[in-house]
């Protein structure tokens, strides 16, 4: 993964509009990215963003479930690590890409194409 395909950040609005433990889909039309992006407000209070399409089949991860530090696919239940995008359970084998999320003022900023810095 590289940062060379990074796109301009997108303001998602006030962070307090994203309830903890839930996942939201941000459209590729809005970001310019090659996939929709699943934005998660995790139970640890952190915000995470992953490519929305499961690496196993073409299923939207934002229809899935936030389980501690993973996002679980709604189809076959592979659980993708929110920090790395790596599947921790089968049947998915390949990671999904992560994207950086920052807070500016009280707004959530999505950085499509910029991987999480702690990855
Ligand atoms: S489609 Fe996601 S695990 Fe199978």
From TrEMBL:
Record-annotated Rieske domain positions: 21-110
GO molecular function: 2 iron, 2 sulfur cluster binding; dioxygenase activity; metal ion binding; monooxygenase activity; oxidoreductase activity, acting on paired donors, with incorporation or reduction of molecular oxygen
Ribosomal protein in keyword set: no
Keywords, sorted A to Z: 2Fe-2S, Dioxygenase, Iron, Iron-sulfur, Metal-binding, Oxidoreductase
Keyword NAD recorded: no
Database matches in CDD domains: Rieske_RO_ferredoxin (cd03528)
Pfam families in the cross-refs: Rieske
PANTHER family: 3-PHENYLPROPIONATE_CINNAMIC ACID DIOXYGENASE FERREDOXIN SUBUNIT, FERREDOXIN-RELATED
Record-given protein name: 2Fe-2S ferredoxin
Species whose genome carries this gene: Nesterenkonia jeotgali
